[in-house]
Amino acid sequence: MSKDKASKKDKASKKDKSQKKKDIAFSPEELAQSITQAARSMRTALSHNLATSGLYAGQDGVILALAQEGSMTPGQIAQKLGVKAPTMTRTIGRMEAQGFVERSAGEGDGRLTMVKLTEAGQKSVDHINTSLAACGARAVEGLSAKDVKNVVKLLRAIDANLQSLDLIDQKFEAKAFNSSQNP
Asked: Are 69 and 110 in contact (CB under 8 A)?
């Protein structure tokens, strides 16, 4: 075979391979599994990094929320972090026992319970931020800045889609409940 024909064959072969990469289709199940697994891996790595400071999974979000907002009610923290109130109440109880947060009566309304960081909680903020940065850096190893920007953009879009789905489900459940109450 002549060099020209071999060269053309190699180029055609490369085109076929690059086209195949572009045409790879992922099912919704594969997408969901990939996102879930990546989130799990990130959470595991972060938990490992935070363990040296005595923090457990999920507690970092509470500390960062309180560091940003000051004192908050357990319900406000739960809403900000997207968890149920009973889960947050247990988390706060554990964190209080560990010395990261303290509860007190709300100013003006003693019925409200307010949560704020202790000195130990405030000191843990830097460790949490360092751990987040280390996990983030490890997660994007080998990716270009453009790739990272695209991943973040796509994940935000996916999250927004799923958040709007929650709103639709809530409206549907409310309608169903109201129609069952008013036959």
From this structure: no
Give CB contacts under 8 A, 24+ apart, made by 34-37.
35/155, 35/158
Q: What pLDDT, on the 0 to 100 scale, is given for residue 123? A: 94
CA distance 147 to 109: 49
Integer Cα distance of 62 and 50 in angstroms: 13
What does pTM read for this prediction?
A: 0.69
Long-range CB contact pairs, 99-108, < 8 A, 24+? 100/55, 100/59, 100/63, 100/124, 101/62, 101/63, 101/66, 104/71, 106/73
Contact call for residues 46 and 56 (beta carbons, < 8 A): no
Taking only the tens place, the pLDDT of each residue in 24-74 is 677 888 989 999 999 999 999 999 999 888 898 889 999 999 999 999 999
The CB-based long-range contact list for 78-86 (8 Å cut-off, 24+ gap) reads 83/58
Indicate the helix (H) or strand (E) that contains 103: strand 101-105
Cα angle for residues 126, 130, 135 (degrees, 5° grid): 150
